[in-house]
Design goal:
By secondary structure, the protein is of the alpha/beta class. It contains eleven helices and 13 strands. It has a domain of about 200 residues: Rossmann fold, CATH 3.40.50. It starts with a strand and ends in a 27-residue tail after the last helix. Bound molecules: NADP nicotinamide-adenine-dinucleotide phosphate.
Length: about 350
């Protein structure tokens, strides 16, 4: 039986990847952070919590990483743990660098020293292309990170290449473009919208504040993207791959479909709040996944409209169930109204 170690198993991708690997017959070990209230709702939501071996690891702590490898003796390691939110990286640039960037070097060093035959997947990101002017981005496009998050991811991306070329590790960067699902964190704009749309439909909310509505992203469906991670580790040689849909859509388009689904006009409910505008923004992303399609045989099946509708439908169903008094593993019921969360002023006024 193959053994996999997933860091960040409590996150969106960690939960879907664990589910995917369990179905493939893997023994799955997952790392979680020791926090005051553990956050296992996604694993419970997918009914896999009892099938996973959990190990407490913080990427800030090298020894916890080494211990987790010794305990799990994995064939494959998937590093999904990160401070993963671009907005928060402007507020906590140092922690973001230490976790999302240097944390990866700690894992690579651990692998090089105690498990050099392990196959390693690094969750790289389309954010490393930054505010670029290319009509689409592939593995060979120039990187121009525009946030502390993206800079940390690019550092990690380069370290993976250095350890692959320098020490012969089987290590891959998955340059994943945005991927969403009903398990997406509530601070991310897609889920923020679909959760609010559901609440607006049920009369629980009447306004949503957002940042730049003209930003364009390439959005795919997370359960399909975790399969690509696994495929990267099943090849003869390690390499880096773009995973995307090759479509680009704006936040306004997302709002259109989401509000259409509940029969309302988004313009009556959305306002722009400066606090969500970033000091430097990424205006446009559209991924070219030709290499993944040719080498991995991977392609997306769920496209933009379906993705938005899956998310709105799911949030609506969960709020309705909640209103009926049904209790289940879920994040939205106790998520604070963001109007109560003070933001450090992101852009300095001169
Ligand atoms: P996510 O839901 O935010 O999950 C991030 C995970 O990292 C959580 O399990 C979190 O644990 C863990 N983590 C945070 N800080 C940590 C630390 N110091 N030590 C150990 N674990 C820590 O992110 P996701 O959407 O699943 O994304 C998975 C990975 O892919 C991330 O690296 C992300 O940056 C990258 N990525 C995501 C996308 C996307 O569109 N989703 C696109 C490109 C790349 P807690 O639960 O304790 O917070």
């Amino acid at each position: 039986m193959k053994r996999a170690l997933i860091t960040g198993i409590t996150g969106q991708d960690g939960a879907y990847l664990a589910d995917f690997l369990l179905k493939k017959g893997y023994k799955v070990y997952g790392t979680f952070r020791r926090v005051s209230t553990p956050n296992f709702w996604r694993l419970q939501y997918l009914n896999i919590f009892d099938k996973i071996e959990l190990i407490s690891v913080d990427l800030l702590d090298s020894f916890s990483i080494i211990e987790s490898i010794k305990i799990s003796r994995p064939n494959e390691i998937y590093n999904l743990a990160a401070q993963s939110f671009v907005g928060a990286s402007f507020e906590q640039p140092i922690a973001s660098g230490e976790i999302t960037g240097l944390g990866v070097t700690k894992i690579l060093e651990a692998i090089r020293n105690i498990a050099p035959d392990v196959r390693f997947y690094q969750a790289s990101s389309s954010e490393i292309f930054g505010d670029n002017t290319f009509s689409e981005q592939s593995e060979t496009t120039h990187f121009n990170p525009s946030s502390p998050y993206a800079a940390a991811k690019l550092y990690a991306h380069n370290m993976v290449k250095i350890y692959r070329n320098g020490y012969g590790l089987y290590a891959c960067n998955g340059i994943l473009f945005n991927h969403e699902s009903p398990l997406r964190g509530l601070e991310f704009v897609t889920r923020k919208i679909t959760n609010s749309v559901a609440k607006i439909r049920l009369g629980l909310e009447n306004n949503l504040e957002l940042g730049n509505l003209d930003s364009r992203r390439d959005w795919g469906y997370a359960p399909e993207y975790v399969e690509a991670m696994w495929l990267m580790l099943q090849q003869d040689k390690p390499d880096d791959y773009v995973i995307a849909t090759n479509e680009t859509h704006s936040i306004k388009e997302f709002l259109n479909i989401a509000f259409d689904f509940i029969g309302l006009n988004w313009e009556n409910y959305i306002s722009v709040n400066e606090k969500f505008i970033r000091p430097v923004d990424v205006r446009h992303l559209k991924g070219n996944y030709t290499k993944s399609s040719e080498n991995l045989g991977w392609k997306p099946n769920i496209h933009f409209k379906d993705l938005v509708e899956i998310m709105v439908k799911s949030d609506l169903e969960r709020w309705i169930k909640w209103q009926k008094g049904e209790h289940f593993a879920w994040d939205a019921w106790n998520y604070p109204n963001e109007k109560r969360i003070l933001s450090r002023k992101l852009k300095l006024e001169r």
